[in-house]
Structure formats: C-alpha cells, structure tokens
C-alpha cells in the first residue's frame, strides 16, 4: 500500500537576515520580509504505509508525464509486488493506458474534497511546518536536497 501525491510550487526563497538594535544595547537577530526567489519545484512523494519509507523526487512541472515518470520509478522500487496506490482525483493521476501496462498496480482514489485521507499529506504537512517554513535557500538545488533529506530518491 502506497500513498502518492505531489506538492507543487515549493519556492526556493533566500531570506534576508537582519539585526534589530534595542534601546538597551542588545541586538535581536531575525529575518526581514525581503527575499530573493530562486525558482520553484514540484515534489512527488510516495509513502509506503507499512514501513513509513518515503520515495521522493523533484520535477520542474506537475503534468501527467512527470507523474507517470515518478510512478515508473516507484514501481521499479517494488519489483514483482502487487501495489495498491492511494491518490486524489487530480486528472493527471488518471491514465488507463499506463495501468494496463502495469497490471500489478491498482489505483484507489480518495473522494472529492477529501485528499486529507491520503497519508502522504501528513508527511507534506510535517515537511512544510518543521523544515520548509521560514527556511532560506540560496538555490533550487539546495531546496531540493533539503526537502529530500530523510527520504530515498
């Protein structure tokens, strides 16, 4: 059982660091609202429910071709296994031709407006809240390496 989804438009923002001098002579460090944008990436991820293992990859775009390339890499990570894949109802996730070529894979779609039932969404939430929010990245590559840490690619 795998839970699969994508997190689009993750921004590589290099945030400006600053210092605020207080009247008592102390200084506070922090981040200003200024930033330099170094691009965006889409993170595709598959969560193996039984083990908690994450397979993740980045792509410039979020089209059907990138999704199916990711699914090809996922199926190659589990050779000769029957895979049940939980997905939301995004149109790029529906491809009967690909499923016919991969008879060991069955897609199961969450109900409309209930993508929160997909457990990989929990991983995306933790990644965003504990790792990406407020972080500063000097390049898209640095963001991709950071968000892939803890997962195998």
List the topology elements.
Elements: E1 2-21, E2 27-48, E3 54-59, H1 64-77, E4 83-87, H2 96-101, E5 105-109, H3 120-132, H4 140-148
Parallel strand pairs: 1-4, 4-5
Antiparallel strand pairs: 1-2, 2-3
Question: What key attributes describe this structure?
Answer:
Nucleotidyltransferase, domain 5; alpha/beta; elongated; 27% helix; 4 helices; 153 residues
Report a brief summary of the structure.
This protein is an alpha/beta fold and 153 residues long.
Secondary-structure arrangement, i.e. CATH architecture: 2-Layer Sandwich
The description of the largest β-sheet is: 5 strands, mixed
From the alpha carbons, calculate the radius of gyration and give it in angstroms: 19 Å
Give the CATH topology: Nucleotidyltransferase, domain 5
Plain-language structure description:
It is built from four helices and five strands, in the order βββαβαβαα. The mean pLDDT is 88. It has a five-stranded mixed beta sheet with strand order 3-2-1-4-5. The protein has helices at residues 64-77, 96-101, 120-132, 140-148; strands at residues 2-21, 27-48, 54-59, 83-87, 105-109. The protein has one domain: 2-Layer Sandwich (Nucleotidyltransferase, domain 5), CATH 3.30.420. The protein is α/β, with parallel strands linked by helices and 153 residues long.
